[in-house]
Amino acid sequence: MVMLEVKDFGKRFTSHHLNTTRKAVEGISFSLKQGGFIGIVGKSGSGKSTILKSIYRTYLPDEGEIWFDSERFGKIDLLKAEERQVIWLRKHEIGYVSQFLNVMPRTTARELVEQALLGMGETPEAAKIEAERSLRHFDLDERLWDTFPNTFSGGEKLRLNIAIATVKKPRLLLLDEPTASLDYQSKLKVREVIEKLKADGTTLVGIFHDLEFMEGLCDCVYDMNEKALRGMPEVQR
């Protein structure tokens, strides 16, 4: 079953003060079956994050189609989805991990993870147990669980961000450099969770500069330079 299909996708950005428009990406096409994992590779500025943000509808694309096989809405073009549908999909079916943590102020790390689960319909008791399990897995010091994450280090914020997104076990998970500021042991923790989600049927699209991390994890890569799918590159050891 095809879970995600991107057809002739393109996105432009307009600088109104300069009265200029530039194309960020164009002619992007690929499809992904349920439980598959595609890595997007290319030089900085090639539009990798633009693709992920458009799938998540942070950006509204200008060209093409992005079809997602939703459990609630059926096959839906995310470019044309209503705002209420996008909000529901983000809450229940599509997760997004960025390099940055943007959260509500005065909300503790524990509460952020619990809220993600409560939004999925979990009971407060189950949400508390699962949130603690996730925070512990990503080695967040228990002394930080009930503090506000604006005081966290970059690595701690990223691990919390991953915990919030993965604890919901989404049908589609978008990963934008999820290991960018993590040490080796933390990367292994992230990989372990991704492997389990993939085995359980989550479909994944990820951006990684760390090709060694991708090896044995992604099924294929989309090369932004060639605008084509290809096999995983071999890592030189």
TrEMBL record:
<dbReference type="GO" id="GO:0005524">
    <property type="term" value="F:ATP binding"/>
</dbReference>
<dbReference type="InterPro" id="IPR003593">
    <property type="entry name" value="AAA+_ATPase"/>
</dbReference>
<feature type="domain" description="ABC transporter">
    <location>
        <begin position="4"/>
        <end position="235"/>
    </location>
</feature>
<keyword id="KW-0378">Hydrolase</keyword>
<dbReference type="GO" id="GO:0016887">
    <property type="term" value="F:ATP hydrolysis activity"/>
</dbReference>
<protein>
    <submittedName>
        <fullName>L-cystine import ATP-binding protein TcyN</fullName>
        <ecNumber>3.6.3.-</ecNumber>
    </submittedName>
</protein>
<dbReference type="Pfam" id="PF00005">
    <property type="entry name" value="ABC_tran"/>
</dbReference>
<keyword id="KW-0547">Nucleotide-binding</keyword>
<comment type="similarity">
    <text>Belongs to the ABC transporter superfamily.</text>
</comment>
<keyword id="KW-0067">ATP-binding</keyword>
<dbReference type="InterPro" id="IPR003439">
    <property type="entry name" value="ABC_transporter-like_ATP-bd"/>
</dbReference>
<dbReference type="InterPro" id="IPR027417">
    <property type="entry name" value="P-loop_NTPase"/>
</dbReference>
